[in-house]
Design brief:
Blueprint: H1 6-10, H2 18-32, H3 41-57, H4 60-69, H5 85-95, H6 99-106, E1 128-134, H7 136-141, E2 143-154, E3 170-172, E4 181-186, E5 189-194, E6 203-205, E7 217-228, E8 237-240, E9 256-262, E10 269-271, E11 274-282, H8 283-288, E12 290-295, E13 301-306, E14 315-318, E15 335-342, H9 349-362
Parallel strand pairs: 1-9, 11-15
Antiparallel strand pairs: 2-7, 3-6, 4-5, 8-9, 10-11, 12-13, 14-15
Helix pairs in contact: 2-3, 3-5
């Protein structure tokens, strides 16, 4: 399911300083506050969405994790997920802590009350997010996956202009007078909101297209194939330019961010480009030494020499049998094998006799001392 990027929610660039993020959140929060939009569930959702975005982007650690890994990077912070309405109100109260800020936002003298588009219109559509589950092996060696999602696509009937077959330009919106916002009095305050007629653009199409109603974009179900590069890790994203929402009135479409969620493997664990697994051997193999064939992630069998006297927990390394390095050509990580010596639960009478002979030959310590922890 597509979800809007936090920077897109607040309308700021990825290099925006904290003060700019604070101002952007203040503007969106004022416009969509439930007290100003009673009964408007859409405004309520935008208000909570903005609070969630501000909670992450105003925190340096959360922002760094989000920039690197997307939404998956902030799940463990106790924030950045869908938050309750009380959290949204708390963020709103925090950012409007002093009266000069809130008065400046509500009264007409401040330019902060303008909508994001305003009379200037929107030059670029919204980015979209798609969460994709990928098998462990496919993430390691790469694959192609078809995804289906909904986006605002440029209207084919009017080529995104919003004008009908007879053509026609745009005229100033009569509801807002070209301001892109409307004001209403609420007791002592005067509050502004995005104009419902022109959606903040300040103008409307004189002869609207019958297919899109003058918006220049229509909802479309889209399918496309996404190339997952070999070596991609959990939480990383694949960005597909121009496959996000198309803006109203024409312009550049946003991007589609495909966030990768790698499914766990039954036998292997991954650390960067290295792989780890546990291989069992018998106590006789461990004592005498042996050669075993170990399975790799790409379903090969690699010969490994186990030295005589190998103990449980010993780690052996197979070079270049790990995960491919993204855009690294033939470079791969290593495969680390942790040995586990398995003691049989049942023994035949002959096996018991032989083991007793070994015990007599080697001698058994009936009063062993503990092993120093540093030696483990």
């Amino acid at each position: 399911m597509a979800k809007r990027d936090y920077y897109e929610v607040l309308g700021v660039g990825r290099d925006a300083p904290v003060e700019e993020i604070k101002k952007a959140y203040r503007k969106v929060a004022v416009q969509n506050h439930p007290d100003r939009n009673p009964g408007d569930t859409g405004a309520e959702e935008r208000f909570k969405e903005a609070a969630e975005a501000y909670e992450v982007l105003s925190n340096p650690e959360k922002r760094q994790a989000y920039d690197q890994f997307g939404f998956a990077g902030v799940e463990g912070f106790g924030g950045g997920g869908g938050q309750g309405f009380s959290s949204s109100f708390r963020d709103f109260e925090d950012i409007f802590g002093d009266f000069s800020d809130i008065f400046g936002s509500f009264f007409g003298g401040s330019s902060r009350g303008r909508s994001r588009g305003g009379a200037r219109g929107r030059a670029r559509g919204s980015d979209l997010r798609y969460d994709l589950q990928v098998a462990f092996k496919d993430a390691a060696f790469g694959t192609k996956v078809e995804v289906a999602y909904e986006r605002q696509a440029s209207c084919e009937s009017c080529s995104g202009t919003g004008a009908g077959a007879g053509g026609g330009g745009r005229k100033t919106c009569s509801t807002c007078g070209g301001a892109g916002q409307v004001r209403r009095s609420s007791g002592f305050f005067s509050v502004a909101s995005v104009c419902p007629t022109c959606q903040g653009e300040g103008s409307i199409v004189e002869n609207p297209c019958s297919a899109c109603g003058g918006a220049g974009a229509v909802k479309k179900r889209q399918r496309l194939k996404v190339t997952i590069p070999a070596g991609i890790a959990h939480g990383q994203r694949v960005t597909i330019p121009g496959q996000g929402d198309a803006p109203r009135g024409g312009g550049e479409s946003g991007d589609l961010h495909v966030v990768i969620h790698v499914e766990p493997h039954k036998h292997f664990e991954r650390d960067n480009n290295d792989l780890y697994c546990v291989i069992p051997i018998s106590m006789t193999q461990a004592a005498l030494g042996t050669e075993i064939q170990v399975p790799t992630l790409d379903e090969k069998r690699v010969k490994v020499k186990v030295p005589a006297g190998t103990q449980t927990g010993k780690v052996l390394r197979l070079r270049n049998e790990g995960v491919p390095v993204v855009n690294g050509g033939s470079r791969r990580g290593d495969l680390y094998i942790k040995i586990q010596v398995v003691v049989p639960h049942r023994l035949s009478s002959r096996a018991r006799e032989l083991l007793r002979e070994v015990a007599d030959l080697e001698g058994e310590n009936s009063r062993p001392d503990p092993i120093p922890l540093k030696d483990l």
